[in-house]
Amino acid sequence: MRKGPLSGFTVVDLTRVLAGPYCTMLLAELGARVIKVEPPGRGDDARQYGPFIQGRPCYFGSINRDKESIALDLHEPGDREIFEAMLAKADMVVENFRPGVMERLGYGWETLHARYPKLIYVACSGYGHTGPSMMEPSYDMAIQAISGIMSITGTEDSEPSRVGISIADIGAGVYAATAANAAFVHRERTGEATKVDIAMLDCLVSMLENPITRYVMTGEIGRRRGSRHPSIMPFEAFRTSDSYIVLACGNDKIFKLLSGAIGQPELADDPRFRTNSDRVAHSDLLHDLIEAVVLNETTTHWLEIMQRAGVPAGPINNIEQALQHPQVAARNMLVDTVDPVIGPLKLVGNPLKIWGFEDPTSRRCAPDLDQDRESILAELGMG
Amino acid sequence: MRKGPLSGFTVVDLTRVLAGPYCTMLLAELGARVIKVEPPGRGDDARQYGPFIQGRPCYFGSINRDKESIALDLHEPGDREIFEAMLAKADMVVENFRPGVMERLGYGWETLHARYPKLIYVACSGYGHTGPSMMEPSYDMAIQAISGIMSITGTEDSEPSRVGISIADIGAGVYAATAANAAFVHRERTGEATKVDIAMLDCLVSMLENPITRYVMTGEIGRRRGSRHPSIMPFEAFRTSDSYIVLACGNDKIFKLLSGAIGQPELADDPRFRTNSDRVAHSDLLHDLIEAVVLNETTTHWLEIMQRAGVPAGPINNIEQALQHPQVAARNMLVDTVDPVIGPLKLVGNPLKIWGFEDPTSRRCAPDLDQDRESILAELGMG
After folding, report:
1. For residue A2, is pLDDT > 80?
2. Is residue A229 among the annotated active site residues?
3. Which sequence positions of B are flagged as catalytic?
4. Predicted structure pTM score
5. What is the pLDDT of residues B28-43, one digit of tens each?
6. Distance of CA B97 to CAs A318, A357, B137, B139, Å?
7. Out of A6, A175, A275, closest to residue B351 by CB
8. Do B178 and A26 touch (CB under 8 A)?
9. Contact B213 A136 (CB under 8 A)
10. CB B130 to CB A330 under 8 A?
11. Is the pLDDT of residue B383 over 90?
């Protein structure tokens, strides 16, 4: 563990797949010790997800770095004893089972809270621990579909698209980390431990606040609009002579800069385009006018011009190109680890930059199943 | 303010548009008092973004509820005096200016930290406060393009698509809230205030951990695949007789349940589909085999069958349909407010559910510019 705001705190981590493990990865980045408790035999489901390099699961490795692993069968008395000894010394337990699983194991919030009053309980599930759908099974893709986010992602005439990442899982993981930290604040201030109950669907509803507000206020149901923003213009992709450029004019001043940069200063004075509302009302026309100019030169050409003019702009990078952005290295967003089988590897770094704490350039590799059993047992005096 | 883990803490909020205001909205949901400091005249840029109902900006209203507003010109000595009196009593300042703006105002981290040693500083920017690109202007759309997320969102043959929400802004807002809470934890434990430095690009890189890991480990550059997940199968949309259904089989057991549910139990024993890796290797074939069955009945029909079978599934809801999901009401994810001009309105609720704290069904409407000036000045003895 390294020094961070959560240094000295221990998190017992029952999570699997993505939302929970992403949450506990962030807690580890903040300095907490995270001990993964996995079922014996196969461990976390994500150990079965590819791609595999020399038999090592990359998906699992990426978000479980800097964690310890112990395999415990929570139906088996001896293992339960170990688990309970771990809980007695822990500050937080995190789980992303379906609601009811912890209760059936005898480890529901009420039971744990009575027995370990300082232990914070963080639950992450598809629908939350209340409400009529709480017991329904869920995965990221189902929640993406149900939440409405797929209905506004992609182009009108294409097949349905997911967000390119597992936004329901990753999102829930970050909100869970936010609430987990808030629960730590509360415990520090009052001594009281609480239960955090994060639902993937709630998180996506919150992320969808803009299209939801639009619907609630105007009755307008959002639709798939490609790269176009529903309330800001120009704020979208334009074709260039060799690919695309995204231009993002968040206010009238930037639109004026853009108009100058493309040699059409009169656009900023045109009554159809004077304010953002005017531009949104004439977005097709304005799109065509801008594209007619930018289509004549390359993306690189326009990026240089936009940079000089101070217009927020970007190329549509692929993943390889994105990683070459100078900020990725400068901000330490790719870090090193050494896998015992594969050797040196790169992992994604820590987005939670807090000055005064180190932001190390390497991480301990994700654990093999049960890798830390002996040291954990020895520490508990159960070795 | 209501009771929450951050009750009693005051946040001085210089943020505008989306990432910063979304962060401080979450802090308000956790119980902090948030005082928005806006430039006189036009205030937060987002006050100019539509849609407007009876002249009221919906975009702004949605994420600025439960905040106070005071208009201060930070270049003007009298207003600076008020601002400094506010900082002296505050626990945190949050800003999402371009790096350097706070320094030019004489309110950079070093200055503030020396003068107000307990004041936590949270900065949210496009590229962060370090690195070669730190001074570049940015907005959500530019960062979506640069980060690579647009390159994997949408279908292969369609025009480029943004994620249907402002994922770079909202994402940065949540990570900033996570780090802000961690900074509160640290201050509670040590008395020491820190600077949080959140970059939209860092946050998207972190959210992209899966495609980045895949690229780093295998050299495979992610591409747009519609609704298909790159490493889990079946985990995508299928056409039904009247629309689509998303099926999400996260493990072999669920795939077996699905095979039974569609009357094709032999699929689970087929060596081409036995494990997730097998299914990913034969994903086109498996997609066609499943779709050939589900195409014969409606989405509603299959949703009932999947629910009985325990297979995570969902319809591709639009925003209106999503809000009708029984969990949205049950989880209090739509709350009431009363706008002084429009009247009663709905807003998105709080995804950070922490048991033991109330989860109220109403919010104070977003403030008019400078609405709380008098009460704030009176409190500071400057009225």
Report:
1. no
2. yes
3. 229
4. 0.97
5. 999 999 999 999 999 9
6. 28, 23, 10, 11
7. A175
8. yes
9. no
10. yes
11. no
